[in-house]
Amino acid sequence: MIARLLTPFFALALLAAAWSPTTQAADFPPVFRALEGEWRAEGEAFGASAKSSMIWAPTLDGEFYRIVYRIEMARATGIEIFEGVGYYQALSAESARGFWVDNSGDLHPLTVKIEPSALTSHWGTAGGKQGRTVYRLTAGDSVEVTDWILAEEGWRRFNRAVFRRAGAD
Asked: Which residues form the signal peptide (predicted)?
């Protein structure tokens, strides 16, 4: 039981150790700095009424950006919580890499395309679960987050939320 719980942590430690540092937070493309801070959304997630939050911040001496993502969904049986954490390392002005872990037990590598106002994270591996998440800055200091999963019939959207900065009401 303990070995099963510790395995993801060891994998993350090995993954982080294998990566050589390439940049500092000040060198990250501007879209990362625009995403910094705490964001909130209300609406629907996974077919339920939901409250979502995400926090973006530089971490580990500015070598990475971290996102902490949380969805609280109101189900007939009570509140269901989805939580995940992602780490991003910029490789250039157009690309980054990273990994994502969440409370469903998923651990995915990330390949990231960087645009001036968006990050597109492709997650998963060939032959396994694959998806993509787009974080797009929009007018009015908002961020639209859209998730897709690769199904047999092609890409299927499974979640979308529009976030506003916490305290920006």
From this structure: 1-25
Q: Which domain holds residue 126?
A: 22-165
133, two tokens: 């998440």
Q: In angstroms, what is the C-alpha Rg of the chain? A: 16
Candidates 73, 52, 127, 64; CA nearest to 91 is: 64
* Domain-located, residue 2: no
Burial 22-49 (b: 16+ CB within 10 A, else e): ebebeebbebbeebebebbbeeebeeee
- pTM exceeding the 0.90 threshold for the entire prediction: no
Query: Over the stretch 88-134, which tens digit does the pLDDT of each residue have?
Result: 999 999 999 999 999 999 999 999 999 999 999 999 999 899 999 99
Whether 13 is covered by a domain: the verdict is: no
- The CATH number covering residue 59 comes to 2.40.128.20
* Residues forming beta bridges with residue 147, ordered by sequence position: 133, 159
- Considering the domain boundaries, does residue 113 fall inside one? yes
Q: Which regions of the chain does DSSP assign to beta strands (E)?
A: 37-45, 48-59, 64-75, 78-90, 95-102, 107-115, 118-124, 130-138, 142-151, 154-165
Domain count, the chain: 1
Inter-residue contact 70 to 80 (CB < 8 Å): no
∠ CA(100), CA(163), CA(16), 5° rounding?
A: 20
